């Protein structure tokens, strides 16, 4: 949809100024569950607020508020990027989350495993086994979306991978054959180029295109419980403390909501929202 020939610009979190894309915002709203007409209506209401130096974060906040007002818990999917940042501050919930994501992709996973390398002992964030192949997965969590993973990260992970494979030790559940680097933000171009060149699997918010972390979460309904717009920050933290990270985890352990003091009818509304986040039609 094109409402004006004037080129509008926005400022990204990196400070880069880019052309504002109505189509991109519309698509993100539709992915969250809004109809195309609803999405276009929200975009039309946002356009007048665009001024010089408007940030992408300001646009997100406005779009989220409008979607939440119009469609209730549909807005919960739209806050996915922000919800990943809420899996902090330690990063350990993010490691559990990635372990769960890989489990739903067919891997058997272990989180926080100590393995002896040729030179030193390494703590592997996630050990993932599938079809006889064992992967070491390093999770790089950032609480600030302006931070990226530069080339030093895959360089470091490749060195750890080489130390583990050179040890000559038969690790359980098997010899490591692949290294991963997963982040909730982005890789620099150099990091993508180096990691791909040396055979590491890189997974970030938007890489690889079409099979990124965002794509996998949306495809399998693996939204973290921090996406919820109905749970308070304190309630989310209590559930994270119980090692619950996925919205669908809570659906399997609904008694935890009772444990943290949530009662009907609010409990039912929360469960419906979590079911929606998990791509389930009913609780």
Automatic annotation (TrEMBL):
Every Restriction endonuclease type IV Mrr domain range: 91-197
Coiled-coil region list: none
SUPFAM superfamilies xref list: Restriction endonuclease-like
The protein, known as: Restriction endonuclease type IV Mrr domain-containing protein
InterPro entries: Restrct_endonuc-II-like, Restrct_endonuc_IV_Mrr, tRNA_endonuc-like_dom_sf
Species: Imtechella halotolerans K1
Upper classification of the organism: Bacteria, Pseudomonadati, Bacteroidota, Flavobacteriia, Flavobacteriales
GO process annotations (BP): DNA restriction-modification system
Molecular-function annotations in GO: DNA binding; endonuclease activity
CDD domains assigned: Af1548-like
The organism's place on the tree of life at top rank: Bacteria
